[in-house]
Design goal:
- By secondary structure, the protein is an alpha+beta fold.
- β11 and β12 form a beta hairpin.
- The strands form 3 sheets. Strands 1-5-2-4-3-6 form a 6-stranded mixed β-barrel. Strands 11-12-8-7-15 form a 5-stranded antiparallel sheet, with no helix packed on it. It has a 4-stranded antiparallel sheet with strand order 10-9-13-14, with helices on one face.
Length: about 260
């Protein structure tokens, strides 16, 4: 598996290089809050607890087959008469099924773009011209692991990562029994959910490859993260905080568009 990680580190060296620059797009909003709990990222009812409910579904190029789940974006409305200048911060929790807009936002996030007393005018538009960029996620919590309901002892383990900070993607996950030098890789099921049918007996520790800046890097702990008697539905603290951000570097295509205006 070390060769696999070497390959991953090589191919993800530029994963976040263009995420910092603003991009033009369109945004709409969910007509029902119930739709926020069934997102493609698998956060389910936890999604509405993120960021005060300022969440969104993203187009396929932002969702990135699940790697974009949990990414944070700053979204600004381009209509100065209707909207505030500062914009809003949202977290990606779902995939939008078509690419007609970049985001379908929670209604709460969408109307927060509006100037005072202009929220109803904003809703009437249904679709809004916006500019957005990926930004670092900030949590006052460590990266955490939730044991998913599909897990089944002793060997089938499914975990979900929560509170992933910085401007990073988790690209690979391995686990090992504490004290052992043998590592077992996990497969990404969807978004933040990773699984294995060959989990060793606990207690367990983990190591990850995450993107940061222009490079991928190892993140791990020697300490126990999951006890031997791990329980479905429980949340476990990894004692790790991820704060890496992508280095600012505008994509050539974006720079050329800006210069042509």
């Amino acid at each position: 598996m070390l060769n696999l990680f070497s390959v991953l580190l090589f191919f993800f060296t530029s994963a976040s290089a263009c995420d910092w620059c603003g991009q033009n797009g369109k945004a709409s909003f969910f007509s029902s809050n119930a739709l926020l709990n069934v997102g493609a990222c698998g956060y389910e009812s936890l999604a509405t607890e993120f960021n005060g409910g300022f969440i969104a579904a993203g187009s396929s190029n932002l969702f990135r087959e699940g790697d974009g789940c949990g990414s944070c974006f700053e979204v600004r409305c381009r209509d100065e008469k209707l909207c505030k200048k500062e914009g809003v911060k949202i977290i990606l929790t779902d995939m939008k099924r078509s690419n007609e807009t970049s985001f379908v936002m929670s209604k709460k996030a969408f109307i927060s773009l509006a100037n005072e007393k202009r929220d109803l005018d904003l809703i009437k538009l249904e679709t809004l011209d916006v500019q957005f960029r990926r930004i670092p996620c900030e949590y006052n919590k460590n990266l955490s692991i939730r044991i998913e309901e599909m897990s089944q002892k002793p060997n089938h383990l499914a975990i979900k990562f929560l509170f992933q900070g910085g401007q990073t993607d988790i690209m690979a996950v391995e686990l090992s029994q504490v004290g052992s030098s043998v590592w077992q890789y996990m497969s990404q099921k969807k978004g933040p959910i990773w699984t294995t049918h060959r989990a060793p007996p606990g207690p367990l520790r983990f190591r990850l490859v995450v993107t940061g800046g222009y490079d991928g890097k190892w993140v791990w702990t020697e300490e126990e993260i999951l006890p031997s008697d791990w329980k479905i539905g429980e949340l476990y603290d990894t004692k790790i905080q991820i704060k890496d951000i992508a280095q600012e570097s505008c994509c050539p295509s974006f720079v050329s568009r800006a210069k042509s205006r």
